Amino acid sequence: MTALNARGAFKSLPTGLRDDLLNAYNEIIKNYAERRWEPAELNGGKLCEAAYTVIRGLADGSFEPRSKKPRNMVDACKEMEKESDQPRAVKIQIPRMIVALYEIRNNRGVGHAGGDVDPNNMDATAVLYMSKWLVAELVRVLHTLTTTEAAEIVEALVERQVPHVWSSGSKKRVLKSGLSWKKGALLLLLSETGEVAEEDLVRWIEHKSIAVFRRDVLRPGHRDRLWEYDETTRTIHLLPPGIEAAERLVHELSARG
């Protein structure tokens, strides 16, 4: 990961605005993982308002202390195109993504009665990935990073609350019985936002042999690019394909009840 850590990603923003942005983002992630489509989509609207406040602040040279909803979001985003001294991401790309996300919030059966479509997995998935893109772009333009570096930071921003994983202090346990060691590892790694020590993962999953777990689970998962397993530092870090696999597993387990 880039030297910029997750905590410092939005350090330049006022505390209230930063909290509004990250709280909305984390609620989208949490609700999506729990298959709560309507709350996930509703928080897309809150994220839009925070993201707009950030880009408006970039253009104005100062930030509002808290997220501020413009009178007309579409018109306000179109006005951003007049900011000729701003990079294209700030004046065009981010505003247009905000408009698309806000449209789902307002006119797909989420924001009020009478929408065309009931809240559903398809729309919530669109909200999820548009939200990740928006937050990653904000990180990128605030810190002049590559898209890859920004995406890594965004994944680390998530305060993961994973169903079927119990945690208390330094202890974690997979509550769903009958899962393979690989699936248990995916759930446990999803519940963390950074590197996990090998000894901690083995302790959490209650495997009897680190050597066997290393051979049968960690190395194959590394080869499959589910996680990065550093055999020098003995740490594991979930990679994007692993995050996707773990999220699919959460959805499958939740669907079974």
UniProtKB/TrEMBL annotation:
Identification of the protein by name: Abortive infection protein-like C-terminal domain-containing protein
Species assigned in the record: Brachybacterium epidermidis
